[in-house]
Amino acid sequence: MAATKQRNMVALDTLFEEAKTQWTNALNEARHPFRYFVLGTSIPDHYPQIRTVVLRDFDSKNLVFTIYTDNRTQKIKDLTRQPKAQLLFYHPEEQLQLRVSCKLLEMQSSNQIFHSLPQKSQRDYTVNPAPGNLIDSPESISYGKEALHFRKLRFQAQEMEYLKIQKPMHIRALFFLSQDWKGQFIVP
């Protein structure tokens, strides 16, 4: 009986590796659901701010996530005041949700990365007026050619929550950097 129970048990390290595989796959598959994810920031006395961003790089050894942004956005202001964030990934087919608490490692401008992007993508970081400003219509936006506002942001995972919705039971676990990513199951 004990052997049967052991065979049916979910291994925590398998869940952790599954998460890393999904993030790695998101870099190679344009339509992977983890390619676009939700970045949440907050500062004291304000509502949390969430927005969809694009995963640009992932370091599976160190659990570092990279995105690009315009340095005039609210996320830059929030992260400057409070260099912590949450990332939320959801895979609808797998019914897998990964929530990552992280700290901002780096906020860097990079002409080299900016100029390696397709021109269509470069426009996202040269918009005038700045993101978040009120405008009369979408046609009133203009674009520059310089990388003045391009920023690369890198986030170091501190904690990861794994949640898989499935029958006959959901699986939920927490993993912590401070514990060398050893996991612990929690009630879904």
Structure summary:
By secondary structure, the protein is of the alpha+beta class. It is built from five helices and eleven strands; from the N terminus they run H-H-E-E-E-E-H-E-E-H-H-E-E-E-E-E.
Explain what this protein looks like in three dimensions.
The protein is α+β, with helices and mostly antiparallel strands. The protein has a single domain, classed as Pnp Oxidase, Chain A (Roll). The chain contains five helices and eleven strands; from the N terminus they run ααββββαββααβββββ. Strands 1, 2, 3, 4, 5, 6, 9, 10 and 11 form a nine-stranded antiparallel β-sheet that branches. A hairpin with a 6-residue loop joins β10 and β11. The longest helix has 17 residues, at 12-28. It is elongated, with a radius of gyration of 19 Å. Mean pLDDT is 92; it is low at 1-8.
H/I helix tally: 5
Q: Give the CATH class.
A: Mainly Beta
Element-level helix/strand string: HHEEEEHEEHHEEEEE
- Catalogue the unreliable spans: 1-8
Q: What would you say the CATH architecture is?
A: Roll
Structural class: alpha+beta
Quick one: how many beta strands? 11
Rounded Rg: 19 Å
Q: Helix coverage percent of residues?
A: 10-25%
Task: Please tag this protein with its features.
single chain; nine-stranded antiparallel β-sheet; 5 helices; 22% helix; disordered N terminus
